[in-house]
Design brief:
The chain crosses the membrane at residues 12-37. This is Prepilin-type N-terminal cleavage/methylation domain-containing protein. The structure is a single chain. The protein is of the alpha+beta class. The chain is built from two helices and 16 strands. The strands form three sheets. Strands 1, 2, 3, 4, 5, 6, 7, 8, 9 and 12 form a ten-stranded antiparallel beta sheet that branches. The protein has a four-stranded antiparallel beta sheet with strand order 11-10-13-16.
């Protein structure tokens, strides 16, 4: 009996020793594994944020390109009298359409006309005519008739179903009015783009018709935005200047638009005492942001081939 008791005691001792050694090994492994798992989690978060940032930039750029490529007309008649205007949200010359809106401070707005959202080929020989169109022309909307020798302007007199009635302005040359001309009929509508509170929790970039109509929320998650025109000053087809000045520019000299923006990551929670980063944009304004949940993005929206 004593021999059996000693054996059981010896076995229990070995089991306890094995448990202690196993626990020690697990503790040592955890000591190495926890930092590795933490680093892997951080790396995964960084990769996800970079992917989110790239997707955000490409989406916003494509959205603006689909609109702004209609800011200038590079056909036979360049329509050199059409202008764009870039201004600051804190300036006194805010467009009347957005003067009463809570525009984000220290951000830019832009006012311009979109050409050719509706586009039709026509042969005209008089100042009034009617045609059928599937496009959504609007009554009282300005129009442009693009022609190399006899460009014209006018407006949409009325719209009834698919039937659109056009009234062209009188020309100085009476012979030009009676002359049959073939060209492109383009819609022309003024808009203003600006940064204001979105429908969600973040700021959004908006587009509003300058005369009347509902504003359209284009893209969310933008905290600040700066807009710069890239210009061809001598009309030789090459880029001459990136302007940082606010004011008006002819659409015919516009080659592209450079956009700088401060963006908020989705579903990101800031930590207490997180260090803030200062960024000076190309115009010289300072943007302060949280590097964990916000990032700076910039891209060029081309309007024509350089």
């Amino acid at each position: 009996m004593r021999i059996l008791s000693k054996r059981n005691s010896s076995q229990t001792g070995w089991v306890l020793l094995e448990v202690m050694i196993s626990t020690l090994i697990i503790m040592l492994l955890l000591t190495f594994m926890v930092p590795i798992l933490h680093q892997a989690k951080q790396h995964n978060e960084i990769v996800q944020q970079r992917f989110q940032a790239q997707s955000w930039i490409e989406g916003f750029k494509d959205n603006l390109k689909a609109q702004w490529e209609k800011l200038a007309w590079f056909g036979c008649n360049s329509l050199s009298d059409i202008t764009i205007e870039i201004g600051h949200s804190d300036a006194a010359n805010l467009p009347s359409r957005v003067r009463n809106k809570a525009i984000q401070g220290k951000s830019d707005w832009m006012k311009a006309s979109l050409l050719g959202e509706c586009l039709d080929f026509h042969t005209i020989d008089k100042n009034t005519f009617t045609f059928s169109s599937d496009c959504k022309w609007k009554a009282k909307q300005e129009i442009v008739f693009s022609h190399c020798l006899a460009p014209r302007t006018g407006w949409v007199d009325s719209v009834s179903g698919a039937m659109v009635s056009i009234q062209l302005n009188e020309t100085v040359d009476a012979a030009q009015t009676s002359m049959s001309s073939s060209g492109l009929l383009l819609s022309k509508q003024e808009f203003v783009w600006y940064l204001a509170q979105g429908k969600g929790e973040h700021m959004s970039f908006w587009r509003a018709p300058l005369s009347s109509g509902n504003a359209l929320e284009l893209w969310s998650g933008i905290k600040q935005i700066a807009i710069y025109p890239l210009l061809d000053l001598d009309f030789d087809g090459r880029l001459d200047e990136l302007s940082t000045e606010y004011g008006k520019y002819t659409a015919s000299s516009l080659k592209a638009i450079w956009v700088e923006s401060l963006v908020v990551y989705e579903n990101c929670k800031t930590k207490t005492n997180e260090p803030l980063i200062k960024y000076k944009n190309f115009r010289g304004d300072t943007w302060i942001y949280n590097g964990r949940c916000e990032f700076v993005a910039d891209f060029i929206v081309p309007l024509s081939v350089f």
